[in-house]
Amino acid sequence: xxxxxxxxxxxxxxxxxxxxxxxxxxxxxxxxxxxxxxxxxxxxxxxxxxxxxxxxxxxxxxxxxxxxxxxxxxxxxxxxxxxxxxxxxxxxxx
Length: 94
Description:
Layout: E1 20-23, H1 36-50, E2 55-60, H2 63-67, E3 75-81, E4 84-92
Parallel strand pairs: 1-2
Antiparallel strand pairs: 2-4, 3-4
């Protein structure tokens, strides 16, 4: 089953059944949250607190911001989103 949800990721609770989460947060190119480092840290905090047992993938061209997630990626795939070189990082949440 594939479910699409639009919500504030920092506030939303994960579904009861573990699965795969794919997020494409702002890179700081067009849209910039007030503090991009805190925004990405919040993604990592939410993954750690709400997504145990999940596989999470994060797509971003901002390598410094990805490091702020505070988790070690089990896989990094290099790809392009238009002209931007991105990383598609996989985090296995235990």
